[in-house]
From TrEMBL:
It comes from Flavobacterium endoglycinae. This is VOC family protein. Residues 42-186 form the VOC domain. Keywords: Metal-binding. It comes from the Bacteria.
Length: 335
């Protein structure tokens, strides 16, 4: 029997092409074509133009506490580049500074020498108008600080009462060169998160401000943090307790008990107050503390002077950047 190789190869090629088309079709159904092709992971930086680079860097560094990292230029720009990027032909060289703005995207600051472009900021409702928002833990304290540095605050902090952004507080401010920027805070999350959506917006409050430092491995320092943790749970004075809480716990601290999860300082305060109200004569005492790098294990007991061990258990702490980031609570079962 003769085999027609040409027809056979053509069938194989046709089958292979059909299979490839099916694979492409199924791949496209898993993700949108844009997501698949762009392969975008996240925002690396935001670029802004300023009239005076040195003054802008001084503001970002001295007032906002950001760190200048890299610099390029002055870089002369040729005519073709200016035409392609809509730059006035008479504008001079560009100097670029990249600034680390904490936990999140960096800020790329541009200064054009002998700038012939518009020197007016766009109005809020103009096409192309934009702003940068910075997350803060205590927006009122941040506003007072900026005011003390002579920064113009545009209005007063406003808390969203309902909707997707319920619980978010924000306020705008002006930089010395007139750009509008924003402070925003939502320590207990936003309204839409309560419905457990499939996608949650990224937030710097949910990530450590920086990588774990060597000080987080200091056993003596971590022991002090745990001792202050016990002081918090025994402190009856609200003001003193709040000061200790902010010193010991990260703003987005998470306490995991077998019956519940408390997220943020406010939820932990509520639990402490309820516990003290139900057990006014009880207090926590430490049985032992063990450290392992930035992980600490505290064995404790809870009771009155007459019966100090009514309840006993163990707390496991994860310490990052000098504060408790995670707290896992284990209560001993009664026999």
């Amino acid at each position: 029997m003769k085999i027609n190789h040409k027809k056979s190869n053509k069938k194989v090629q046709t089958s292979a092409a059909a299979m490839l088309n099916l694979l492409i079709l199924f791949s496209a159904s898993d993700k949108t074509v844009a997501q698949t092709n762009a392969r975008i992971i996240g925002i690396d930086h935001v670029g802004i133009n300023v009239p005076d680079l040195n003054k802008a860097v001084t503001f970002f560094n001295d007032v906002l506490g950001f760190t200048p990292v890299t610099q390029l230029g002055p870089i002369p720009l040729d005519a073709d580049w200016k035409k392609l990027n809509h730059i006035n032909p008479e504008t001079g060289a560009v100097t670029i500074k990249m600034i680390n703005a904490g936990n999140g995207a960096s800020i790329e600051v541009f200064e054009y020498a002998d700038n012939k472009g518009s020197n007016k900021h766009p109005n809020t409702d103009d096409i192309g108008a934009s702003h940068i928002a910075f997350y803060v833990n205590d927006i009122n304290a941040s506003v007072q600080y900026l005011k003390s540095k002579g920064v113009k605050i545009l209005g007063e902090p406003f808390t969203m009462p309902s909707g997707d952004t319920a619980g978010e507080t924000w306020v705008y401010f002006e930089t010395p060169w007139g750009s509008k920027m924003e402070l925003v805070s939502y320590p207990n999350g936003k309204g839409y998160e309560k419905s457990h959506p499939k996608t949650v917006l990224w937030s710097p409050k949910n990530s450590p401000a920086k990588k774990i430092s060597e000080t987080d491995f200091d056993s003596k320092n971590n022991t002090v943090i745990v001792e202050n943790h016990l002081k918090i749970w025994n402190e009856k004075d609200e003001a003193k307790r709040k000061v200790l809480l902010n010193q010991v716990y990260a703003s987005n601290v998470e306490m995991v008990d077998r019956h519940f999860i408390a997220e943020g300082i406010d939820e932990i305060i509520k639990f402490i107050v309820e516990l003290q109200t139900k057990n006014p004569e009880f207090k926590f005492t430490a049985k032992s503390v063990e450290t392992n790098h930035n992980i600490v294990r505290l064995y404790w007991q809870f009771g009155s002077k007459m019966k100090p061990t009514v309840v006993s258990g163990m707390d496991l702490f994860v310490i990052e950047n000098g504060k408790v980031q995670k707290l896992y609570v284990f209560v001993d079962q009664k026999e």
